[in-house]
Amino acid sequence: MLEIRSLQKAFAGQPVLRHVDLTIQSGTLHGLVGANGAGKTTLLHCLYGLHPPDAGRIWETSGRPIRELAGLLPYEPYFYPRITGREYIEFCLQARHRPVPDLGGWSEVLELPLNRYAEDYSAGMKKKLALLALLVQNFRYLILDEPFNGLDLSNNLLLLALLRRLREQGVGILLTSHLLGSLTELCDDITVLADGQVLRQYPAAEFAQLSSDLLDSLHQQKLAALAGLLPQPG
Ligand SMILES: Nc1ncnc2c1ncn2[C@@H]1O[C@H](COP(=O)(O)OP(=O)(O)OP(=O)(O)O)[C@@H](O)[C@H]1O
User: Start and end of every ABC transporter domain (predicted)?
Assistant: First the structure.
C-alpha cells in the first residue's frame, strides 16, 4: 500500500496541500478530482518524490522506496529532442537496468510510430508513449496525471480497458481526471480535493452522491462569486 499521512506543502509561503491523507491499495483504482489549482498535480508529485513535503509522511508499506515501485505519468510528458519513441522506451528501461522487450505488439495496439522523433508526436501520441514507458516496466503502482487528456475516443476506451486489466493484475493506480464519468465508471474510490484539503473520499457505492455534491458545491461557489460581481441595487 502507498500511504500519505497529514501531508503539507506550500510554495513561497502559500499552502497548496493541507493535512492530506490518502491510501492507495494494490489492485485498486483511486480517482482524484478537484477544481483547477486544487493541488492534485502537487499531491502526485509529492507522492512520487518530485517535491519534498513540508510536513507529513509518505511511504510504501513494504518499506521500499516509492520510486522503485511506482511510475509517474506527467500531465505534459517531455521528450528530449532528436530521440525516437523507441529510443525513449529503451532509455527508460536501460536506466532501470531492465531488459528491452519486443515493442512491435505495443506499437500496433497503441498505433505509435516508434521510429519517429517523439518531439514530433501529437499530444495524444506523447501521452501514449509516456504511458507505454510505464507499462513495459511492470510497476506495482501507477501515478497518472490526466491520463485521458489528449486521447481520442477510441484510445480513451482502450485506456479504460487497459487500466481495468492492470487492476486485475494487482497494480494500484492513482489517477487524476476532470472526466468524472470516466472516473466513476472505472474507480473503486474517488477523493475530492478542494483548496488543498481532502473534502471527502467516496467509495463506489456513493458515486451517485459524489456527482450531486460536486454540482452543489460548484453552483454555490459560482453563485457566491456572481453575487460579488453583480452591481448592488441602488
Ligand atoms: N512549482 C510550483 N511553484 C509555485 N507554485 C506552484 C508550483 N506548482 C504548483 N503551484 C501552485 O499550486 C497550486 C496547485 O497547483 P496544482 O498544479 O497542484 O493544481 P491542480 O489541482 O493539479 O490543477 P489543474 O486541475 O489545473 O491541473 C496552484 O496555485 C499552482 O499555481
Answer: 2-220
Least Cα distance to 188 among 212, 210, 207, 211 occurs for 207
Written as one string, the DSSP assignment of 150-207 is: T--HHHHHHHHHHHHHHHHTT-EEEEE-S-HHHHHHH-SEEEEEETTEEEEEEEGGGH
- What are the pLDDT digits (tens) for 12-58? 999 999 999 999 999 999 999 998 899 999 999 999 999 999 999 99
For residue 50 and ligand 1, the question of a CB distance below 6 A is answered with no
Residues composing the chain? 234
Ligand 1 centroid – CA 38 distance (Å): 7
Cβ-Cβ contacts under 8 Å for 16 (sequence gap 6 or more): 9, 10, 39, 42, 196
Which residue has the CA at smallest separation from atom 18 of ligand 1?
39
Query: pLDDT tens, 78-110?
Result: 898 899 999 999 999 998 888 888 999 999 999
**What are the tens digits of pLDDT across the range 188-205?**
999 999 999 999 999 999
CATH number, domain 2-78+139-229: 3.40.50.300
For the Cβ of 33 lying below 6 angstroms from any atom of ligand 1, the answer is: no
CA angle 94, 99, 101 (to 5 degrees): 115
What single letter denotes the amino acid at residue 188? D
